[in-house]
Design brief:
single chain, alpha+beta, Dodecin subunit-like, five-stranded mixed sheet, 12 helices, 3 domains
């Protein structure tokens, strides 16, 4: 009886592997459906408890697979602490539904196969809020400083510097919403406005770009956008109605270099019979144009900046070195981003190449990790601005990472989203 049941579970498991691979490869943008397995030891003949914990383990694997689809392997490895502490400990928050496909007792353990749906949209938001997802995106993090003033305002409106007044900028809201839609990451917005004094930063004036850059660095932004939106009544009229001119001037600074790299200047005209409404309408029209212009210019600059040619050393090492090195070097020659390779050192089990790559070392590392080989794997354990370390690993070592022969030491939270 057991042999028959065991064979059935093996067939189920093989099916799970193929179903899981297909499901996770073709995920929609907001939900990830897949099948995973869980295994738990039966203690004191309590089969139900072992089953519940095995199901919980399977759901955690589904969430882990979702995390792996959203970030690079380097980000995955470097942020394991966040994943375990902040994501995996709240697995039930990300599981939309699940269904137990089957389960058996096997050598003192209970094994299950579980089909689940993971809320990828929520997971993306969690990783974006934690500034993790952006590590795998070719978009900068931006902190905005936009002064806004109309004739009805006694003082310009702003949120930083000395004695800021209540700040509700029509221009900034429109521009930021557009940037978010275009997948830029905005920091320090809304209720999360940073307090400069907390970082011992003092603005000598509301147009102090030096202090703004310092605050941007503290907020871990890649760029700041600094500028002014204003509106006023124009001399020209359209019939009996007044016309109002608005102008928005913005400057973008790269915080890595401190240089001004983007400039945007737009104007717009609105018609109204009331001053306040006319000024606001003009600013809104100008903000729509400014948002489009700024988004395109920053996107163009940032892409060019990321794709500048970088030169860095790459150390390659491992067992059975020479044939594997030849195979990897051949793959390098097929990578479009590599402009040139120069050998610097060569040993019996290692080599150092100077790589000239159109992109940053982190982008080179991500591209390399997409390369697969039949007889060995790759491990990238060190990526800096000047150095990348690549190690050859055995296939069985990679498979061992997924060996579930041992129990998880920590207790597993029971998931109650749905019934079987």
């Amino acid at each position: 009886m057991f042999k028959k049941t065991g064979i059935s579970f093996i067939i189920l498991f093989i099916g799970i592997v193929f179903i899981c691979e297909a499901s996770f490869a073709a995920r929609p943008s907001d939900v990830l459906t897949g099948v995973t397995t869980g295994k738990r030891r039966i203690i004191n003949h309590n089969i139900q408890q072992a089953k519940q914990k095995a199901v919980s383990d399977a759901l955690k694997v589904a969430l882990q697979n979702s995390f792996a689809t959203l970030v690079s392997r380097q980000v995955f490895a470097s942020r394991l602490d966040f994943f375990y502490d902040q994501v995996l400990s709240h697995t039930s928050d990300y599981i939309i539904t699940y269904r137990v496909l089957g389960g058996i007792e096997n050598k003192g353990h209970y094994l299950v196969g579980v089909e689940s749906k993971v809320d990828v949209a929520l997971l993306e938001k969690t990783l974006t809020d934690a500034r993790i997802l952006n590590a795998n995106m070719d978009k900068p993090v931006i902190l905005f400083f936009i002064v806004e003033k109309t004739p009805q305002d006694l003082l310009p409106k702003y949120w930083w510097g000395k004695n800021p007044i209540p700040y509700q900028s029509f221009a900034e809201e429109i521009i930021i919403n557009k940037m978010v839609q275009d997948r830029f990451i905005i920091t320090g917005n809304g209720l999360e406005r940073p307090d400069p004094s907390f970082y011992n930063i003092t603005f000598n004036s509301i147009y102090d770009t030096i202090a703004a850059k310092d605050l941007g660095v503290e907020m871990k932004a890649d760029m700041i956008v600094f500028g002014k939106a204003s509106a006023s009544e124009a001399i020209n009229r359209m019939g009996e109605e007044k016309t109002f001119n608005a102008q928005i001037n913005l400057e973008g600074y790269n915080l890595e270099t401190g240089e001004k790299v983007v400039t945007s200047q737009v104007q717009a005209v609105a018609v109204s019979d009331t001053d306040r409404q006319g000024n606001i309408q003009a600013i809104i029209k100008a903000a729509v144009l400014s948002a489009q212009d700024l988004s395109e210019k920053i996107d163009t600059y940032w892409t060019q900046n990321l794709r500048k040619e970088h030169a860095f050393d790459t150390r390659i090492e491992g067992e059975n070195f020479l044939p594997r090195f030849i195979a990897l070097k051949q793959r390098f020659k097929q990578m479009s981003g590599i402009e040139n390779m120069q050998p610097k050192e060569m040993g019996s089990n290692y080599a150092i190449l100077q790589i000239f790559y159109k992109g940053k070392p982190s982008q080179f590392a991500d591209a390399v990790m997409l390369k697969t080989f039949e007889s060995f794997g790759l491990e990238i354990s060190d990526v800096t601005e000047e150095f990348v370390l690549i190690k050859f690993i055995e296939k069985q070592e990679e498979a061992a990472l997924f060996d579930d022969s041992k129990d998880t030491a920590a207790p597993v939270e029971e998931i109650q989203n749905t019934t079987e």
